[in-house]
Amino acid sequence: MMSNFDLIVIGGGPGGYVAAIKGAQLGLNTAIIEKDRFGGTCLNRGCIPTKAMLHAADLYREILEGGRFGIHAEKVTVNYGEVLDYKQETIDKLVSGVEQLLKANGVTMLKGTGTLLADRQVKVTFAEPAEDGATESYYDAEHIILAGGSYPAKLPVEGMELQGVLTSDGLFALKEIPESLTIIGGGVIGVEFAEVFSALGCKVTILEALPKLLANLDKEISQNLKMILKKRGVDIHTGASLAKIEKDPAGGLICHYTEKDKDQSISSQYVLCAVGRKPNAAGLFLDPEEFADIAENSAALTTKHLEAAAQTAHALGITMERGFIETDIYGQTGAPGIYAIGDIVKGIQLAHVASAQGITAAEKIAGHTPNVDLAIVPSCIYTSPEIASVGITEEDAKASATPVKVGKYITSANGKSLISKEERGFVKIIAHADTGEILGAQMMCARATDMIGEMATAIANKLTPSQLLKGMRAHPTYNEAVGEALEELEGGAIHMA
Ligand code: FAD
């Protein structure tokens, strides 16, 4: 059976489903293919479950520390099963919301694995046989958007295959709070899980090979976070390179690592490997019947699969490098009419990046001029206090010899921060020394992840502090700290000695 669409999207994560909705809104007859659950990694195994668990863990910690506000609770306990239920309910509501949105916008939803063939044809191997018993079908479209996402990477280190060595997917599946957990990798995913499980009473150790946590972020943020997590009982080793993992005869696992040229080891019940994610592009090009193992489990990908996928992609006119698909700024690959977005393309692997790329590709396909500036990407870490960053840091400015001035405000005199006893944070805004244009911002304070949006808007529109100060900020709000950092750039913050 052949069915023609204007647009077929393969992959229903935050890149794919947003692209499909935008395409349909712009008048394209659109279909979306998803082999698992709509919402992708973000809703099912990423952004949403981690934030739900962080919310529960932080709430528990706040209740235990409630004495600071005169609130004393006794016999406060964690029922981890109920925490997992709350997390799953949140996920399910959002996933069903995505399906309703796709339906409401007239997008055809196909449940199965999509394989890209020549001439913009797509084979769909259905997850369940169709009503007429068909297990597969073929469709074609003027335009195709590939949005296959990514899967957790593992290090090529002995012992990675041992039972108890988990990726983020496996950690979500645990039904118990681990007694102890060694986290390999002090990036965003590593530190967020460290916060969750240390708050819930697990003994957490982080091994990070680079000299600091959150290596790409402002130095001050990394240092502060290290201090805060240590205070909460997390054992942190930076410059610590994992050598191998082996079974502990006493139970659990032993991680052997090198730190400052010394061989060290740590024993724990579980090990979390949080060392980044690999593009899931191969599954888009290889027929699931021939490569049943990868259809079941992306982690089963071998060099043989990747090479076969790259060759198939190449024959279609698509270039892949280390598994990532190469595109232009609109997401267009080397093959006419075929676009790629989200975690399968080179760049920052974040849900809002995938969505913005999806909107851009759909707009381009529909003949509109894409609007969003894909170069300005806010990064957020949902620890307590929250961390957010966009644009350049002071260190970046120094490295590129860009003349800048820095407006920094410590939140100790911000009313809202004092009320919630979260006054040990800061907002730092970086502006060009000559033009005044805002170039970057870093925040480590309550609600930083919400407040960074204003800075992204400012950078994207080349605004200056005085333009941003035209609008008032309500009192009392955390957002007043942003106003104070802007005032600091203009000559002096009001509430700062
Ligand atoms: P995905 O979300 O991975 O979706 C791809 C979809 O395509 C999947 O549903 C998959 O089943 C489907 N698919 C793949 N191949 C096929 C095929 N051949 N046929 C049919 N369907 C197919 N990002 C943030 O911005 N903020 C956060 O706070 C955040 N937290 C995270 C926490 C964790 C623990 C993890 C793991 C990730 C987190 N991320 C976060 C990253 C974010 O989840 C990803 O960047 C985002 O989901 C990428 O979107 P995507 O649409 O490109 O791919």
| DSSP summary: helix tally | 16
What order do the strands of the largest sheet run in, or round the barrel if closed? 1-2-3-4-5
**Broad structural category:** alpha/beta
Morphology = globular
Give a verbal description of the structure.
The protein has 497 residues and is an alpha/beta fold. The chain contains 16 helices and 23 strands. The N and C termini lie far apart (74 Å). Strand 22 (426-432) and strand 23 (438-444) form a beta hairpin. The chain has a 5-stranded mixed β-barrel with strand order 1-2-3-4-5. A 5-stranded parallel β-sheet has the order 7-14-8-9-10. Strands 19-20-23-22-21 form a 5-stranded antiparallel β-sheet. The model has no long low-confidence stretch (mean pLDDT 94). The longest helix has 25 residues, at 80-104. Helices cover 33% and strands 25% of the residues. It is globular, with a radius of gyration of 24 Å. The protein has helices at residues 16-25, 40-45, 47-64, 80-104, 168-173, 188-199, 219-231, 282-285, 292-296, 303-315, 351-365, 394-399, 415-419, 448-460, 465-468, 480-489, and strands at residues 4-10, 30-34, 108-116, 121-126, 136-146, 150-152, 165-166, 180-184, 203-208, 235-238, 240-247, 253-259, 262-268, 270-273, 277-279, 320-321, 324-325, 338-340, 379-381, 387-391, 404-410, 426-432, 438-444. Helix 3 (47-64) packs antiparallel against helix 4 (80-104). The protein binds flavin-adenine dinucleotide. Flavin-adenine dinucleotide binds at residues 10-16, 33-36, 40-42, 45-47, 50, 113-114, 147-150, 168, 189, 280, 283-284, 342-343, 349-352, 354.
